[in-house]
Specification:
Helices cover 83% and strands 0% of the residues. With 220 residues, it is mainly α. Helix 2 runs parallel beside helix 6 (89-118).
């Protein structure tokens, strides 16, 4: 199981770094959207709550351009059947989850400094904001990996993935926005308790998705 998981992780990252399509589109969307919003806002003062809402919406819609790609690529290139025959569903799910977590962290690492710089955001608790973004990104990846596998089997893959993922990710976005607004406006770690919710949410969704993934992935 460990060898199969590692081999699938290496395969996914090797193929992605060879093509760089899904990640490039997601990063490009994140950069362009952040710059467009900063230019549109200009010098208009924005409160911490509005900053948090805009930031998490940018992160969410940027992620929607990259998270489903890891499954869509398997279906389009005809390698999904090979994976079903030669790798266990648990190894496939673990590899795809690891890849999506890496994509989310990459997007967060690009969006966060760009947004803070161009929107001139004064963050009262920068380390707490980093922890919140990391925990929220983990929760988004854990929530969307199984849904990406479902969307990859449908015809309108990109649009369907965004639609079906939003209700599941909504609690993460809501908590992430509230915690981020607190981290921007209040010094200290007063909002650290909400991070526990994001981590628990990630664990619960990952466990449920691991159990259900076999029924989604294996075609009877």
């Amino acid at each position: 199981m460990a060898n199969a998981l590692w081999n699938n992780i290496v395969k996914d990252f090797r193929i992605e770094f060879r093509n760089r399509f899904g990640v490039s589109v997601a990063v490009s969307f994140a950069v362009i959207t952040t710059l467009a919003i900063s230019l549109s806002a200009g010098a208009v003062p924005v409160g911490p709550a509005i900053h948090a809402v805009i930031f998490w919406l940018i992160l969410y819609f940027s992620a929607m351009n990259g998270l489903a790609h890891v499954f869509i690529r398997e279906e389009e290139e005809g390698t999904a059947l090979f994976l079903r025959l030669h790798a266990s569903p648990g190894a496939v799910y673990g590899a795809k989850l690891a890849f999506n977590i890496a994509v989310l962290y990459m997007l967060a690492a690009v969006i966060t400094p760009l947004y803070i710089f161009f929107m001139n955001v004064a963050v009262a608790s920068p380390w707490l904001l980093v922890i919140i973004v990391a925990a929220g990104s983990l929760a988004v990846a854990s929530s969307c990996t199984l849904l990406a596998a479902i969307a990859a089997k449908a015809s309108g893959r990109g649009a369907l993935f965004t639609v079906i993922s939003f209700p599941v990710v909504l609690p993460v976005l809501w908590v992430g926005m509230k915690l981020s607004a607190s981290a921007i406006s209040t010094p200290g770690f007063a909002a650290a308790g909400g991070v526990v919710f994001l981590l628990a949410f990630s664990g619960a969704l990952a466990a449920v998705s691991y159990i259900l993934f076999e029924y989604v992935w294996i075609e009877e």
